[in-house]
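Hi F.,

I've been meaning to write this up properly since the lab meeting, where we talked about keeping a consistent format for the predictions we share between groups. The idea is simple: the sequence comes first, exactly as it goes in, then the structure tokens exactly as they come out, then a line or two of notes. No screenshots and no reformatting. I'm using this chain as the first example so we have something concrete to point to.
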Amino acid sequence: MSEGRRRWEEMNMDCLAYAFSKAGMESLLLAVPFVCKSWHKAALNPKCWTCLEFPDHRPYPVFVNTVEEIDTPPRSFGTFYDKFIHVYRIDKSRFSITAFVKMVVDKSKGKATELELPMCGTEAALRYVADACPLLRALTFVDDLVIFKHSQILPEVIGKWKFLEKFFLGGSLILTVEHVNDGRYFCKYFQELLAPETPSCYNVLERIIVQIGTHCKQFRFLNLILIHLLQVEALAIVNFLPHLRTILAGRCIMERDSVLTVVRGCKELDIFYAKECAGFAQDDEEIYKLARQTGKIVCVGCVRRDEVESKFGIDIPTLLRRFVFIRAGLMGHEG
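Output, unedited:
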């Protein structure tokens, strides 16, 4: 190499850390530390870990065919985690997603501002990040609000993030349970992630909204995917999130009145964008009129509730219960 050119390993550590902060978790753990000593040292800088986007945690198998197989340990945890286990020569039977989350979060030294939690997470991991990431401004939580244990404590811990501005919620429900009701059994590993069915598990979103409104005074952005938004949640949004500016809803189930309540009640709202939602038609007369008046509503591919019920041959509340609490799948018998 010519004398006039500097080598990467001679670059200023802060510059390296800034560059590596854009690299992503997989590169920071599986590539960068193994290049040279200076890169390894730079990757330890907390500035590299301000944005924590955990890859999908997909334990496999989720289902087994017989009772005798229920204790079968996961053969895979997802592509990224399998690579991590291999590179660091970890005994697969001892891998813990909770321990992994704690290890990564500790690298941020409390400076993380963006966090995307892994799918199929744990209560212990969520409690840990709630205390270890006090500066969080954006949170992504992909697990269903009803079926998982850690989802049930989200209202309890979300108020700890005083600077939270954006919340991306939902997305894994269909991926998790769409093939459950076929007479098979959940593996023990997955069963231990599930919450018991109680009345309180069905009002988690309302309780989350109340806590955000009470403790997170800079909150402005809400993104919902595969969420059931009833009038009670709509009223909570109006009453507790008066400064909300943006609501994005994808493949959610919500009634027309819920949409009208939110748009009319949130005076500072700039946009309510709904895509492929069920419960109201995008050409509904009242919604169309309000959209013309306010310029705040955009609907794409939304359909009425009766169209959904006709397609599946079942009412929406029952359909939702089958999606989120498949007792036949959990117990191994017809429910």
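Notes:
The radius of gyration is 22 Å.
Residues 137 and 164 are 4 Å apart (CA to CA).

If this format works for you, I'll send the rest the same way.

G.
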